[in-house]
Design goal:
The chain is of the alpha+beta class. The chain folds into two domains: 165 residues, Beta-Lactamase (2-Layer Sandwich); 62 residues, Orthogonal Bundle (Arc Repressor Mutant, subunit A). The protein has eight helices and five strands. It has a five-stranded antiparallel β-sheet with strand order 2-1-5-4-3. A hairpin with a 2-residue loop joins strand 1 and strand 2. The protein is elongated. The termini are far apart. 36% of the residues are buried. This is GAF and ANTAR domain-containing protein.
């Protein structure tokens, strides 16, 4: 996607983000396109990564190139760096030159060894909390001047809302998938209970107890046992007998 906001006003930036949201079909694709959109507005040699905060901690969910991902992982591995501090404090952090920066020494030394000289980390502040951070890198020292930093701060503020919306949509889609899986599992177990009720001539409660004991005795999950039973009913008459359910 070639959309750029190099000289755009904020409403145009919002239009570009809305276009991304409407034209991409997955959360991951949207974020990847967002990194490319960002790089297109930055000086030559720039790279972009997006880190989001989940229950398991910070993780890079999109990057414009492999080097960005590698440098992000330096921060995670060393436990220090501008992005991690941005996530902790919601403040922006700029490193004009990794070869002379005194903060985050372990990160800067490795970033410099990878050819990264400038770093700019910006918060993605959602409606109620920080949802992640922009990690901007460049192979040249002093790459991001005051104008670049200000433009990126404005855009990060605009992008945060879109990222928060995409996160919410992604979480809802995941929740729907989990719900469908749960309903499928429940349906399979209910079918297995019905089969055991017919075979053993017992109540639903007793059939469930029989399935639970068989699951424990065979050391397999109840849903897997239920799936076997339901599948076996459509096979040869002797197939169901092999489950040896207690009476």
């Amino acid at each position: 996607m070639s959309t750029s906001f190099t000289s755009a006003t904020e409403p145009t930036q919002q239009d570009a983000l809305l276009s991304l949201l409407l034209s991409t079909d997955t959360f991951e694709t949207f974020l990847h396109e967002l990194t490319l959109l960002t790089v297109a507005a930055l000086p030559e040699g720039s790279m972009c990564g997006i880190t989001i905060v989940r229950d398991s901690g910070a993780a890079t969910v999109a990057n414009s190139d492999a080097l960005t991902l590698a440098v992000d992982h330096i921060q995670y591995r060393t436990g220090q760096g501008p992005c991690l501090d941005t996530l902790a404090t919601t403040e922006s952090h700029y490193i004009p030159d990794t070869s002379t920066e005194a903060r985050w020494p372990a990160f800067c030394a490795e970033a410099f060894a990878h050819g990264v000289r400038s770093c700019l980390s910006l918060p993605l502040q959602g409606p109620t909390q920080i949802v992640g951070g922009y990690n901007l890198y460049n192979t040249h020292a002093g790459a991001f001047d005051d104008d670049d930093q200000q433009r990126m701060r404005v855009f990060a503020g605009t992008a945060a809302g879109a990222v928060a919306l995409a996160l919410r949509a992604s979480d809802q889609a995941r929740l729907n998938e989990d719900l469908r899986a749960t309903l499928d599992t429940r349906s399979t177990i209910d079918q297995a209970i019905g089969i055991v009720m017919a075979q053993q001539r017992c109540s639903a409660r007793a059939a469930f107890a029989i399935l639970s004991r068989a699951s424990q005795n065979r050391n397999i999950k109840l849903r897997d046992l239920a799936a076997e039973i339901v599948t076996a009913v459509g096979g040869p008459p002797t197939a169901f007998d092999t489950f040896d359910l207690p009476g």
